[in-house]
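Practice problem 4.
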């Protein structure tokens, strides 16, 4: 019987340094996005803040949009972690307050990226990112469920595609419904 525990292969020094540099880049992008916004942030600023050449920055991220996407993926992961930590025993309104408080605290501390709503190249980059879209779906799904519960609806309730809940029973086979 083999009782050895499988060990994770050790990362090379080069891989560790690349990961550390990438984390520093994302942290700088996050701060600049929160401070200046996407349109005012430049790739030159990011490289200068991290202390690397612009060419080195492009080894990690090929565009300004990819930089913003990486910052949003990181923010989404933080949101997922926070939501997981919120006690399931809290009433829905308290869960909503906790998430709102957490979000506003990050925003006020300059740790929450600010992105434009009308930038097609950024939107395309975000929508092409599996990590971003998966995180968005998870966070949105949980948020939508909390929102509907706060409105007095229970998980498992059927909501018509238009999002308007009614007390009438939906006709089976007519229209689309969302099941919480």
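Answer key:
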């Amino acid at each position: 019987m083999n009782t050895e525990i499988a060990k994770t292969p050790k990362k090379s020094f080069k891989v560790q340094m690349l990961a550390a540099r990438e984390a520093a880049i994302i942290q700088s992008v996050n701060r600049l996005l929160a401070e200046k916004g996407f349109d005012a942030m430049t790739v030159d600023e990011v490289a200068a803040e991290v202390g690397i050449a612009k060419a080195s920055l492009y080894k990690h991220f090929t565009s300004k949009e990819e930089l913003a996407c990486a910052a949003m993926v990181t923010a989404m992961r933080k949101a997922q972690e926070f939501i997981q930590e919120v006690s399931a025993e809290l009433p829905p309104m308290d869960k909503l307050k906790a998430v709102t408080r957490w979000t506003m605290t990050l925003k006020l501390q300059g740790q929450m990226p600010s992105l434009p709503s009308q930038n097609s190249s950024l939107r395309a980059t975000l929508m092409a990112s599996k990590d971003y879209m998966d995180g968005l779906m998870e966070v949105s799904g949980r948020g939508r469920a909390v929102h509907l519960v706060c409105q007095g609806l229970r998980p498992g309730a059927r909501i018509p595609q238009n999002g308007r809940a009614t007390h009438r029973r939906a006709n089976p086979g007519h229209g689309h419904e969302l099941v919480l």
